[in-house]
């Protein structure tokens, strides 16, 4: 591993610690410094990426004679009219994007997430196969939850206190079961997976990489890189503190 790559890895781990320090110490200087650095970096990267994308998708094709690209280019330019006094021009761009996006996504979404699911439920299919054990259970559960939503607003006074009250309670219990299962799955599966990945990528991997780099390059090269990777964020925090508190405090006292 090169020295600069090792420095970037240690620098990123230090910034990661600064971001997560917000949970232990809200609005601390380290977190504010990391937040400002991240926002500034993302803004700069976005400008460069936008210029490259605009050059490759609009300017070069137009210069090559593809004049049809002018239409979406002009629609995109109209979006920036919100920053001028001609704000009403941006409505045409927003309406065009919203209409095209809705038209393109609505049909496949309804087909895959509504019609196909209802068809599979009615055919007792589970995972693409007909299952006469779990298929009827899913069908009955679907009908109970559908009845709960259909008769919980318009006919709530008669249904919730009438003969269908046990059915609605069962549908409610099924929904609670599904919501609890989803919440537990998200916390156990996704939550612990993310935490373990963070622990491996931000702490274990940099530690192993630094120890290997220490054996290859020696302490004379590795230790200064370690100090720079940790010291530069600390110096940034100190500069941020001096600017925001000391210098601004002096200016306010002088103005007062």
Short overview:
The protein has 8 helices and 2 strands.
Structural class: mainly alpha
Could you give the count of β-strands?
Answer: 2
Residues in helix, %: over 70%
What letter string, H or E per element, gives the SSE order?
Answer: HHHHEEHHHH
Instruction: Give the N-to-C terminal Cα separation.
Output: 55 Å
The averaged pLDDT comes out at 79
Describe the structure in your own words.
By secondary structure, the protein is an all-alpha fold. Helices cover 83% and strands 2% of the residues. It has 8 helices and 2 strands; from the N terminus they run ααααββαααα. The protein has a two-stranded antiparallel ribbon. The longest helix is centred in the C-terminal third of the chain and has 53 residues, at 165-217. The two termini are 55 Å apart.
């Amino acid at each position: 591993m090169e020295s600069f790559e090792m420095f970037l890895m240690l620098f990123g781990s230090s910034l990661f610690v600064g971001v997560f320090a917000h949970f232990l110490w809200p609005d601390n200087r380290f977190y504010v410094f990391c937040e400002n650095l991240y926002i500034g970096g993302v803004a700069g990267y976005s400008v460069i990426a936008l210029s490259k994308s605009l050059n490759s998708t609009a300017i070069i094709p137009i210069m090559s004679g593809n004049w049809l690209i002018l239409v979406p280019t002009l629609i995109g330019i109209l979006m920036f009219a919100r920053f001028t006094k001609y704000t009403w021009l941006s409505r045409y761009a927003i309406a065009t994007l919203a209409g095209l996006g809705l038209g393109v996504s609505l049909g496949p979404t309804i087909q895959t997430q509504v019609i196909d699911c209802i068809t599979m439920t009615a055919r007792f299919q589970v995972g693409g196969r007909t299952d006469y054990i779990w298929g009827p259970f899913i069908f009955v559960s679907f009908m109970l939850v559908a009845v709960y939503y259909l008769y919980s607003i318009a006919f709530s006074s008669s249904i919730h206190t009438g003969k269908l009250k046990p059915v609605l309670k069962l549908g409610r219990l099924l929904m609670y079961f599904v919501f609890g299962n989803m919440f537990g799955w998200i916390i156990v599966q996704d939550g612990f997976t993310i935490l373990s990945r963070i622990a491996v990528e931000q702490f274990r991997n940099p530690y192993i990489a630094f120890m290997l780099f220490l054996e290859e390059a020696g302490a004379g090269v590795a230790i200064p890189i370690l100090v720079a990777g940790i010291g530069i964020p600390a110096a940034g925090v100190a500069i941020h503190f001096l600017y925001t508190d000391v210098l601004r405090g002096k200016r306010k006292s002088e103005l007062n």
